[in-house]
């Protein structure tokens, strides 16, 4: 490549550099004949063509909007001097064009019904070149700097006692984790919406008298249920996935309190014969003196663990 060709290439690259700059929102103003605008309505579409040259031949941006969406129409009051010529009625369209490439100068032509330029149709606009960066401001305070003195005070600002002050000292303590699991009975089925939101179902019709009956997923177990009146029955729920076994029981509707309804939680060590292991966290619900099932038909409860 010759020196002349290299210079030409460098010049071409330099000219194209402004197009690589971040686009800007450019305010524009355009003078029009106030009498002609009467032919337009709020819905009239107005096109703003922006050029980079004073002859308005190098189009760099175009945007169309309804006249009602233009940023504003100003009335220009011109003072006629004595014996001077009759002055035109001038209005100014104000708009903001979005996503314009910065440039040293812009020229605007606006077209649409009722839009007739006053003076040159190609009207110069303010330059769209970003200004120079301002002076840097003062540094802000570190999040751990509680007294704002700029120094690490280990006694009060080293919250995690790591021996230094850093972003870890700014972390708020974790929020309280709460899990709600819904329990209910409809006709011959007991249901559990477990800690993961999955619906589990135990079909009571498959449970033999006096036997431990577990649903196929291993989340609901009916025990101690017999046909003998006055005998207790117990439901065990697998609460794996809850934050802990610190749990309680709530009515999920307006049921009246049920006498002889008890609950407890266990880390699984007491129910190896039900789950096949001694580690499954378990919520047990017992109904004293109920031979068939702990839950009445169409009853609902919530197991809440934290």
Your description of this structure?
The chain is mainly β and 306 residues long. It folds into two domains: 20-125, Sandwich (Immunoglobulin-like); 179-305, no CATH class. 7% of the residues lie in helices and 34% in strands. A hairpin with a 2-residue loop joins strand 8 and strand 9 (189-193).
How would you summarize what this structure contains?
With 306 residues, the protein is mainly β.
| Rg over CA atoms | 40 Å
Span from first to last CA?
75 Å
Please provide the count of β strands. 17
Structural class: mainly beta
Low-confidence stretches: 1-20
Strand content of the residues, in percent?
Answer: 25-35%
Helix content: under 10%
- The figure for the number of domains is 2
Output mean pLDDT. Answer: 84
Q: Give the CA-based shape.
A: elongated
Count of helical segments? 3
Q: Layout of SSEs?
A:
Elements: H1 3-16, E1 24-33, E2 45-51, E3 59-66, E4 72-76, E5 90-100, E6 106-111, E7 123-125, H2 154-157, E8 179-186, E9 189-193, E10 199-203, E11 213-214, E12 220-223, E13 233-238, E14 247-251, E15 261-266, H3 272-275, E16 282-287, E17 300-305
Antiparallel strand pairs: 1-5, 2-3, 2-6, 4-5, 6-7, 8-9, 8-17, 9-10, 11-12, 12-13, 13-16, 14-17, 15-16
Identify the notable features of this structure and list them briefly.
306 residues; mainly beta; 5-stranded antiparallel β-sheet; 3 helices; 17 strands; elongated; disordered N terminus
């Amino acid at each position: 490549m010759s020196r002349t060709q290299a210079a030409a290439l460098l010049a071409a690259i330099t000219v194209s550099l402004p197009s690589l700059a971040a686009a800007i929102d450019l305010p524009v103003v355009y003078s029009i004949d106030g009498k002609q605008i009467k032919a337009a309505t709020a819905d009239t579409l107005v096109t703003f063509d922006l050029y980079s040259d004073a002859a308005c031949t190098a189009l760099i941006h175009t945007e169309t909007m309804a006249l009602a969406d233009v940023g504003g129409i100003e009335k220009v009051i011109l003072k006629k001097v004595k014996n001077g010529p009759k002055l035109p009625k001038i209005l100014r369209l104000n708009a903001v064009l979005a996503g314009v490439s910065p440039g040293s100068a812009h020229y605007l032509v606006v077209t649409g019904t009722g839009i007739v330029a006053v003076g040159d149709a190609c009207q110069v606009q303010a330059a769209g070149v970003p200004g120079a960066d301002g002076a840097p401001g003062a540094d802000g305070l570190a999040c751990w700097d509680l007294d704002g003195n700029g120094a690490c005070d280990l006694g009060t600002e080293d919250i995690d006692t790591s021996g230094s002050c850093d972003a870890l000292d700014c972390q708020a303590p974790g929020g309280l984790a709460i899990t709600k699991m819904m329990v209910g009975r409809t006709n011959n089925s007991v249901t559990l919406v477990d800690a993961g939101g999955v619906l589990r179902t135990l079909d009571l019709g498959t449970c033999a008298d006096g036997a431990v009956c577990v649903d196929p997923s291993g989340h609901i177990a009916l025990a101690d249920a017999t046909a003998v009146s006055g005998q207790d029955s117990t439901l065990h729920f697998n609460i794996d996935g809850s934050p802990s076994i610190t749990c309680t029981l709530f009515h999920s509707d307006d049921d009246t309190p049920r006498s002889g309804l008890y609950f407890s939680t266990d880390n699984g060590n007491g129910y190896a014969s039900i789950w096949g292991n001694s580690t499954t966290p378990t919520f047990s619900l017992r109904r004293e003196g109920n031979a068939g099932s702990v839950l009445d038909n169409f009853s609902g409860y919530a197991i809440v663990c934290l």
